[in-house]
Amino acid sequence: MKIFDRRFFIKSAAAISTTHIATTLADTFTQISPSTLFDHKSVMHLIAPKMATVRIGFIGLGERGLSHVKHCSHIDGIEIKALCDIDQNAMNQASQYLEQQKITLPDEYSGSKLAYKDMLTRNDIDIVIISTPTEWHTPMAVDTMNSNKHAFVEVPAATSVDECWLLVDTSERTQKNCMMMESACYGQKELMVLQMVKQGLFGELKHGESTSLIELHGQQKQEANNNDSSHKKIPAHLYPTHGLGPISQYMNINRGDQFDFLTADQSTTLKRTEATQNQSKPVARDFNTTVITTKLGRTINVKHEINSQSPYTHHTVIQGTNGTFSGPPNRITLEKLPVTVNRHYQNIHQLAVKKWQENGQKGQKPDMQNQQQWNDNMAYWQEHYQHPLWQSKGAEAFQNGETHGKDFLMMWRIIYCLRNGQALDQSVYDAAALSVISPLMTDLVTENSNRKDIPDFTRGLWKNTAPISNAS
Amino acid sequence: MKIFDRRFFIKSAAAISTTHIATTLADTFTQISPSTLFDHKSVMHLIAPKMATVRIGFIGLGERGLSHVKHCSHIDGIEIKALCDIDQNAMNQASQYLEQQKITLPDEYSGSKLAYKDMLTRNDIDIVIISTPTEWHTPMAVDTMNSNKHAFVEVPAATSVDECWLLVDTSERTQKNCMMMESACYGQKELMVLQMVKQGLFGELKHGESTSLIELHGQQKQEANNNDSSHKKIPAHLYPTHGLGPISQYMNINRGDQFDFLTADQSTTLKRTEATQNQSKPVARDFNTTVITTKLGRTINVKHEINSQSPYTHHTVIQGTNGTFSGPPNRITLEKLPVTVNRHYQNIHQLAVKKWQENGQKGQKPDMQNQQQWNDNMAYWQEHYQHPLWQSKGAEAFQNGETHGKDFLMMWRIIYCLRNGQALDQSVYDAAALSVISPLMTDLVTENSNRKDIPDFTRGLWKNTAPISNAS
């Protein structure tokens, strides 16, 4: 980065952080009075007062919202107080599920897009789980915090730099949590790799990659049938948070390191399949390649193919000074092996030597030095590095959870932290840092440019914040 | 690209192309008199007069040079006229090999770094194969062409933008070939994929990737022991040509499409292993991520980890509107399947249905629609899409060749083209386009910048040049 650029950026970032409160957003939600004077009290590691029972309101009961309702209904120490959706059918589906589970039926809010505001006037709700169309995420989260409740919001939490700052400012002003529910951070494989990262198995991290090849057919149908499809409006990666969530935990983003700037390149849009090529003209280009560089000089290569002919593929790489995880297909290589793994290799080596001896010592003697190779035995790694959360709640997650248990585990962990007076695994700074990437990509496309600085929503606090604990 | 940038670039590229001839290079090779007036007669698809016998001189008989000598000795229609190396031991090794093969011993040139110039005064040599340290590649190739011989040079052919232009200008002025010997273009898998690309199996190409994770130990030893190591001097990817060679053939670079610009990001340099961290301080950063965008709007993601803890890994991806190749681990997915492949899947489907029926129709009936998946059966793909060159010469290549036969096949193909009056598979424009990437990456590091335009060495001819034939 040139010094001039950095200075200019620091200046403009400062300008934004004092003025964005006044920014006019959709007038569908409560306007916040501009306040350039309020004290920015950090919400890093914010701990809400212990809750014996977590009282929940839901806004949005579509596919994701219903799934959250189901998961909550299997967790102890919660009460579902209210449901809100403009679609009465969706609401009925959630109610019927709760009825089957013999859970006291919550109050219902519907009838208009703003019915959620009535729900927010209640004083018997602690947290609100927001699973609505993307453009409603920030307005609803802001209203939630302003009504003295913690907000838990689907990905992405915001769709612009201004919205990200608004979430941060509101969380700091109200001292309420705003957690983006990126459940990829709670996947079994992702948490195993986090465990290995925390134990130093990969050494010092230098590079990560996240590739999303999004399945063609469903998305094209969605585009063809829905003129409001986000895929039509946003010419960038819609869900970089899925890959970036875990990688930013590995790299301690907001907690010792920070996103610095990104570069992006996009391939042109080529013809679509015959079935859809005349129906919709997508804004999104076919293949987006973004590289984020962190303040400590790590790089993260985020790749996204929106119009993919490949099966749905989500591929992650994390590389350190001692080794690499890459998958799927999942494989791990480590230069210096931990003692247990080394013993494992020694056993393999001894067996190979024995076989070589039995075969009359034909060919080269098996070499122990060749242990540095890709190991794709995930069962083995999982046996040794299963994350504590999966060790204790894995069976329950598989039994109750959809999406391979990670959504259940996320919800369980949220409720656990709130009931036990612990800080949540992810703060509003994570919501903002992860959500801002897609709008910055969009800016690059619009501006026909290739590089953009990334705001530091912690206002420098990342430097002195401890890494995420291994408990998450 | 901003219009201003492009205009500026075109102007400066033009300025370079008329003045670079006068550029002072190492004074170890013949200076070319500046000539701003000579006609730029293209060497695109240059065909040299048929040679009944190809008479060869070798400069450089180290690991690569000796390998080329061995391969040539197994090919009909050649005569090895001369060997040149400053290292008499290397020369002896080559001579001894030829003696074993009962081949007439060539003349030897040694004694000084410029002994090769004496060899070039001979009139009985048609082509010169240059396998010397990198910094000698351009000077020797230029001298070769100026002495009325065709130059075949190891990768990279040049180490700066000026050297690339010098190769192009010299080839055009002398109407002699200058082919960079990127043998990766002749690999079995690479040519199979080229065959599939040419047959349209992947549809229209949109994106490619090439990842090189270079093995740690050998390289660090090289750096520790050799102060002249290129790895010490060049802070970028030394060998992007290995991955870019095949991908640029897939994408018809110089023949219908052209490199436009590149962006690059590099991770910082982290600590090295204990064994070497005090011995050498590398210039190259740990992980370089470069994205090349082509004139037609395709992207190529070139990744390079120089200080890798992973086993040596060279990974390629090519993605089109109908599918993707990715590997290793090698796998292919295609949306619309060709008839033969479709029949293969139908057979699998029928077997699955039969099994399902035999098991009393338990569970879901196997679905033919789920055929879109990753297929890693490379034997199957190779059976159907083996490249003609591998079909006819594969057995011979495996028998005589090192590096999995690709170097032998490359050499066989070069000799074949020269003896049959065919254009070579790769021209000086390919040598320049592929070689210029590494110096441009270095410029970005030096300038602390992220974007750079890539010169068009064909001077616009790429637009009207036919794609490479499928024969290569």
What does this protein look like?
The structure is a homodimer of 472-residue chains. Chain A is 38% helix and 18% strand. In chain A, the strands form 2 sheets. In chain A, strands 13-12-11-7-10-9-8-14 form an 8-stranded mixed β-sheet. Chain A folds into 2 domains: 6-180, NAD(P)-binding Rossmann-like Domain (Rossmann fold, 3-Layer(aba) Sandwich), CATH 3.40.50; 185-336 and 378-405 and 424-464, Dihydrodipicolinate Reductase, domain 2. Chain A has helices at 3-19, 63-73, 88-100, 115-120, 137-146, 161-174, 188-198, 216-225, 230-233, 241-250, 339-358, 378-385, 388-400, 406-419, 428-435, 437-447, and strands at residues 54-59, 78-84, 107-109, 127-130, 150-153, 178-180, 205-215, 259-266, 287-294, 299-308, 313-320, 323-327, 331-334, 451-453. Chain A has 472 residues and is α/β, with parallel strands linked by helices. Chains A and B meet through strand 7, strand 8, strand 9 and strand 10 of A and strand 7, strand 8, strand 9 and strand 10 of B.
Alpha-carbon Rg of chain A, integer: 24 Å
At CATH's second level, what is the architecture of the largest domain in chain A?
Answer: 2-Layer Sandwich
What oligomeric state best describes the polypeptide chains here? homodimer
Strand content of chain A: 15-25%
Number of helices of chain A: 16
**Mean of the pLDDT scores of chain A?**
83
CATH topology of the largest domain in chain A: Dihydrodipicolinate Reductase, domain 2
